[in-house]
Fold each of these.
Amino acid sequence: MADVVSAAVRSRMMAGIRGKNTKPELIIRRGLHARGFRYLLHDKRLPGKPDLVFPKHRAVIFVHGCFWHGHDCHLFKWPKTRIDFWRKKINRNRTVDQTAIIALKEAGWRCCVIWECGLKGRESLPAKSTIDRTARWLSSRREQHELRGTSKK
């Protein structure tokens, strides 16, 4: 199926997509801040520049967009145009993500990944539930945590 917008419009739309301060990230930040958690944002000193860094809890959170990080959920579909470009880009993002998490764990950090599908789309969880589960993980000693949407069958 052909794109419904021109190449110039599509390019402008894609260029406008942010990597920081996304809606899912802001939901998590506001919810955790309201529960008393304090954090640093996008710390360049750490591998992968985690979205939220909790030095007191020695924990980091990445809030990943399902498209950009190639998540296996209903929000991700491989583009039908420029197939080689998108496969390389998304696979590289996946590799960078894995490398960063391994480096963080080796440095003694606990890691959490919150996927966009956990906060939006037909499989999303209530934001309060996602924030509550994340807050429980931060207060625990568990090393790893992942939140994603669940099928509502």
Amino acid sequence: MELCFAPTYASWASPIEAPLGRLRIFVIAGSDQPNHTVLTQNLWGYLHWRNANVRHPDVLAARR
């Protein structure tokens, strides 16, 4: 394991920020789930949808 210090306000430097940011935007932000069980179901629903609709890396490279 390697410890890497990043600047305080440099979330863009973290590779995990991109998928977690989308998760926050599409599931958590503006939500009003009544309890953690419903929130968990919504999170799993998003993850299942995201995994079912993933694009092949070759397609993404061709778009660039």
